[in-house]
Amino acid sequence: xxxxxxxxxxxxxxxxxxxxxxxxxxxxxxxxxxxxxxxxxxxxxxxxxxxxxxxxxxxxxxxxxxxxxxxxxxxxxxxxxxxxxxxxxxxxxxxxxxxxxxxxxxxxxxxxxxxxxxxxxxxxxxxxxxxxxxxxxxxxxxxxxxxxxxxxxxxxxxxxxxxxxxxxxxxxxxxxxxxxxxxxxxxxxxxxxxxxxxxxxxxxxxxxxxxxxxxxxxxxxxxxxxxxxxxxxxxxxxxxxxxxxxxxxxxxxxxxxxxxxxxxxxxxxxxxxxxxxxxxxxxxxxxxxxxxxxxxxxxxxxxxxxxxxxxxxxxxxxxxxxxxxxxxxxxxxxxxxxxxxxxxxxxxxxxxxxxxxxxxxxxxxxxxxxxxxxxxxxxxxxxxxxxxxxxxxxxxxxxxxxxxxxxxxxxxxxxxxxxxxxxxxxxxxxxxxxxxxxxxxxxxxxxxxxxxxxxxxxxxxxxxxxxxxxxxxxxxxxxxxxxxxxxxxxxxxxxxxxxxxxxxxxxxxxxxxxxxxxxxxxxxxxxxxxxxxxxxxxxxxxxxxxxxxxxxxxxxxxxxxxxxxxxxxxxxxxxxxxxxxxxxxxxxxxxxxxxxxxxxxxxxxxxxxxxxxxxxxxxxxxxxxxxxxxxxxxxxxx
Length: 638
Fold this sequence. Notes:
638 residues, eight-stranded mixed sheet, seven-stranded antiparallel sheet
């Protein structure tokens, strides 16, 4: 959907209102408010679109869930400044409506249609707005599609056919050591630009390269690209509607990733990155999937880089980072244990290359993203040479270097020049493989095919891994079925969410336990943080788990079986509870109301509730009173 139509409709409404004139102060105020909301809605879309290039997409919803802690927002300063100017202009137009819109001439009569036209145009602008479509698809469409019985069976069959659990791969043993380099936004089309990345171009030709790696749904930002390339899946969350996910104790606990397999095979795994490890849940994911050491900006500045100028908005510059990573490589190589060492570059997040690149005059100083790529090309070339020189000193050839862009270049890279080089593709090549010295594969694939392909280069060819397939032998699912990537998003999202987040059946456990001291709830063998709302279907299978940090979970209306723990004042009950204690709310899917129980604060022991009995009771049991969820603060006594 185009944003042009909503803008034209909003401008049209303003013009018609001005031409019609104002008959009353109330009319003036009502239209001023309506217009301002529409104007801000359009402005928000333009800001988001300027950052993503794709409007309100999966990455926006994910970062709304996770927050922006640790992000380097300096690169978006020009967008933010333009947005501020636009908002001020919008307020000026609104003030003009309130103060300057002409009074309707006495005796001038308008038809009912003319009177309603300004507001009707704004309402229509919302209905045809691309942001409205995105919100509808995120919060309404998937649930409606996936809840249909016929669709559920189709989805179950499709999921079973396409998703292959890596735990089925047997006899996996340690092989070569691994150095895995994620290059921030450094897609393959940058390497194809003449004179920009000649070293990476040469290394790609010398290694095993995969030149047709596209981007699937929910894989187009850093943590999503890492999840796809290690686990063979898109990044799905526990639910929608502003869910923060911070209450989940483990990140994707129902998924086996390549790093889990490497851990089981005895690899010591270390991640070293220049950004804040907490940004976008990256640290939580890595710690949940087999990493022994997870080191980010704060850890490096406290230890290895203490006292040094580290220099850029997102974190530590790549010249310093790669020095530290190489020191770690030497340390791990000296130990008699297989290891996997991972890093993520940062310079290509912005247009200020590392100081060393300026000192060595390998950049032009034109403050372009191409200059940042030139710097990455120089630094990575030195790093590769250092690793292979170190191997030669030890008389070994025991390291596999995996080079992978985390995602395609973001729109703030202004990738018009990249688009002229043909279809945009991710970088993926491997150095040090014993299979062959040089080999190129042009099979269409996605970043979800990366882990299966890495397994092949480790000596386990032909294996399926999640939604990924070994691109040295097999066709990817995207190649086999042109509709696969669309089906993944529109049909299998709920199925993935339930399995990948290991959502239990609430009937698997005869009771639930709440510990207000530790702020935990245990159900179905899983432990979650409170406040929390859990919604289950009529079979007891959990559909959604919501953790809110600011908005009460009790304001989330659900028609299914519901378990919620939140501050008592956020629930609607006869007692009008208005204190700081936690309350447990339970409701069977067949009933519009449920039962609420006040929980003791700072109790030494957790409170255990017989879930089956309490869900099906027809009258309040001991310590329970009748209650319901609120949809807003107005429904509760605050």
